Structure formats: C-alpha cells, structure tokens
Here is the input.
Amino acid sequence: MTDAAKPLPAILYVDDEPTALKYFQRALASQATVLTAESVEEGKRVLDRHADTIAVLVSDQRMPGAYGNELLFYAWDRYPHIVRILTTAYSEIVHTVEAVNQGQIYRYIQKPWDITALRMEMKQAVELARLRREHAQLLREKLLIRQKQAVANRIGTLYALCAGVTGNAGTVPIDAYLSAALCAGLTPPEPDWLLMDYSDLIGSEAFRSAAFGRTVREQLDALAGGGAVPGDVFGLLAEAFDDGFDRTAEGGTIVHTSRLTEFLETPTASGVSDLHAFWLAVLLWLGRNGQTLQLSGGPDGVHARLVPAGTTPTPVQLAGWIEQF
Here is the structure.
C-alpha cells in the first residue's frame, strides 16, 4: 500500500470552544482524521467508541465540569496505546505539571498554537502511537509463543512423570488426560514467567512438577492398596469431586472442568491441588489395569466412560497433542 493509499491516522481533540475545534480540524485536515468533542464526558464516549482507531488524544485543560487531565487519566487507564497531549494556557501550568508527573500525558502544548509546530507535534505523536502498537503486537506474539512453550514443556513433564511413576505403560493415560484438558477448554498459563529470570523459571517449574509428582504417587499408592476395581472409578470420582461430578448411565460428567486442567494452566508459582493429583492418579491406576476413560465435551461438562486402554503414544502422537494446545 502506498503512502497515498494509507488511511489517515485518527486524532481526537477535546475542547469546549467551538472556534478552537474548527481551527484544530482545519490545521490537521491534511495529515489526520480529526474527531472532536466539547467536554470531558463527551470525550470519554468518543474514546470508548473509537479507541481502536485513535492514535492521539489532545485535550484542553480548563473546561466546564472537569479538567482535561481527568480525560487523559481515563485514556491512560483504559487505552494506554493512545498518545496523550494536553494543550493549555500558561495560567494553568500547575495542573499541567501535575498531569506530567502522574504520567498521564506525553507532553503539553501551550496555547496559542504555532501551526507549523502543532503539525510537527502531531506528526511525532502519531509516529509514537504507531511504534507503541508495533511494540504491543510484538509483545503479544512473544506471549503467545511463550505460552505454547510453557504448555508444551508441561506436557513433556507429564509424559516423563507418568513413565516414572508406573513405567512405560503408565504413559498410556496421558491421552485421556490431554483429551480431558482439551474438552475442558484449556486456558494458557498466566504470564508470571515473563517477569522471571529464565533460571528462576526453570527452577520453579521443576519444584512444582516434583511436588505434583510426589502427590500423584501417594494418591496412586492409596488407590492401588484400597481394593477397588476399575468398575468403581465413577464412584471414586463422585466421592472426590463431590458436587462437581454427575453420575450418568454410561459413566459420569465432570461439571467443574477447571479441575481437569490445573497442572497445565495455573501459574508457575501456584502449587497443584491434591484433587488434580487424584485425577491423574486415577488415570494411571486405570492404565495399570488395562482401562482408561474416553472423554468428550458437552455444554454440561466433560463426559467420561470406561473403555479398554490403547497403546503407548509415540513421539509423533505426543507432538500431535502438543500442537492442539
């Protein structure tokens, strides 16, 4: 797209003086789409409607009902990508300095304006807004990549944990575990790890996984020594999940689906509950006995029924699971 074909950036100017609004529009018409509002409250409404397209917000300071820095704070709190500029007379400099110190504005422009300087200021502000958007997009892309890496690493840890607890045959239930997580609608883990050094992250994840593995082993030993048989599994789940499990003719429905995704989606610093460890222990216990759960999603939760266990997943199949998250 050529520069001539690109849409003009949008600038919102808020001022209670109609003459100032017309003057600003006329001065910037060639380089921006100028939206206007005549009060702080009207400015908020325009912001809320057009925040995705507005690059720069310029507000007069002294207006009836509220000062302009209130509007700039509103934009700073809700739409941080918008570059905020206060325009003010010299007599209002105290309020301007306060707004600058609070981080509400990029800069201020003193009235009366010099048209050439005003156009240059708006050009620089629009460019800054563009850079902010690009930076935010890069951060979003980095976040998505890191989230997928976090889930992939945790799936690999689960595979190793299952094999370590019950031998290679213990990796069979990972299909059921991951199927349940997909049916439950996994939310990628919260990005607390973006704020951590890499070594701290790896250490925290290792301790979290080790603690989870110990609890799973304890739960599995209790199941193995309890005298139950695979056909008792839905009674065991109903007892553990309490009101979060409904018995059905074919098996049961897990109503509180967040209980099926905890290890994969909770933040690094959060421990994993005994109930979630019990869920994985049940799948491992069934696998030891040649059975597993077939899971399917529904509006009322995740449906489960008892079926014969399949084969140990291959590396390609495990990679296929990871790609689905």
